[in-house]
Predict the structure.
Amino acid sequence: QQQLQQQQQQQQLQQQQQHPMYASPQQQQQQGTVNTMTNQMNNMSMSTPNPGSFAERSQMMQQQAAVSSQFLSQSQMINPGQPTQQQQSPAGNDAFGAGFYRPSPVNADLRQQSTPQMQVQQQQNPNFLSHQQNQQLSTSTSRLSSYNAPAPSLTAGMHNARANVTRQPLVVVAPTPFEPIYGKVIVSEPILVQPPSLFNLVPPYWTYQVETTLQGGCWLVRRRFRHIVAFEDRLRIECAGAILHPRPDKHATRAIEEASTMQSVEFATQRAAEIQVWLNALVRHPLAGKSFSLKLFLSLQDDMGTAWPEVSSNALTRIGAVSGSAVQNVTDGNMPWEQNTPDALEDDAQMLALASSEGIRMGAVVQAVPKLEGSITLLREHGECAGAVGMEMGKLNKAVEAGDRDLGIPIDILSKGLLRYGRRQGRLALELSAAMNPFLSQYKLCKYEKMAFHDRRVALQKRVKERGRADFRAQKLMINQRAMHGPGHMGNLDRLASEASYSDEVAVGAVHQSDIIASIVKSEVNRVAFERRTEWSKSMKILCSSLRESTSENASIWESTKDSFLQAFPEYNVSTTTKSA
């Protein structure tokens, strides 16, 4: 019987060598068990195709993990030398033909540890394993069976699946230095002009002298605030994507002053200083400093209405220009892509990341800067209140000293301390307000940075529009190309070909313009970030030093006030009373 068994085993080995897919009766039985487990796994996956709760999903995955571990152990017990379906070749084809699986790494290690005696026993019994191999196989099987499948995540595949993902900081480099074409701009000599009218119905307005220094001389022109508003609008169109310096805004009381005939000179002087700062910032701007609109604004001696109809002295010309621009804005606002999200047409990954990071930063600036301004206002009001209380106590001291001098001494000491404290707090509020100017400029600059990103979106909209128009005309040309080859239609065919060629050129130009605006926005954001970090670091040093000096001076003020009180009333000195006792 042993000889027959050995002969049968040798025959099986020979058949396996000749036919790799041959299986013995015992292996076929174990393979049937594996197939049963595979069907169980398939039934389990098909029974609940879309489980509702996390508990159902986790329970189903745990059951599948347990069955898969049993499947793996059973498939490994069929033949240690035969691989399982878990190690299928990625290519699917190898030296043994398509669909033959590679050996298991675990079983390969076990076979390498086999001795010659164990190899003889394995030839006699294909399922034979040594004690060490049994331990390793049981360890690997227990690890697989103890594996608990995690519950599926609701945010899998979403961009915010991990809230603790660190964002890469914006890389800021020093911008390329720009040498201004024009010299310093000086705005001075405000003059109140009353336009001629029948019953003086037109309110007066201020005009300012704008002097621009050049290498060989200077330009002298007179401008009004309406010209400045139109100049900014044209500059934004000419320098699309640029982040311009904030234009001076109207104060809260200026609307009432401009509507009346009594406008103060202080108002005009303050506005002239603001316009001068704004124009000098535009002259130093790398894009606006080279624009034609700036040159025309600084050098045109005639009325600006001759070049810009929206500021013409003729009311009809001005109304026609304004209505035309309004119609264009309404038309652009009703386009289909305006209904989508702001970044729906953006295809540049860097621009998307830049817009996201800058949006978060601008949101923080817009929320924080008004709070800082409010705290400085409260500090100023606190100093004014302390000074007012000190003045009232000084008046009270004069009334009390007439009847009781001893009672008036502490009131006088406290009033002097409050007056000194109020003056110091007012000076601190003034220093903090001056140091807050870079923060306020960045707060106002957020509006213009949003306009720069809006210019990019407008360019993308124009690109989509021109591409669609070019595709439509190209399709029209292809459809009618064969039908118009006959006599009498060659002119129409040439017209369609020219229209398609022109539309294609316009579409290429729109694509190029959108790319240029994207590069301008990136460079402008880098320039503003570099200036912001430089100015904010200096302002923070000034703020910290001012607060430190104010705190030390306030402490010395109240210490001196306390010493004056103890000198006037030594009986209240606790340290002296304790020593005498």
In short: The longest helix spans residues 490-568. The mean pLDDT is 75. The CA atoms of residues 239 and 287 lie 7 Å apart.
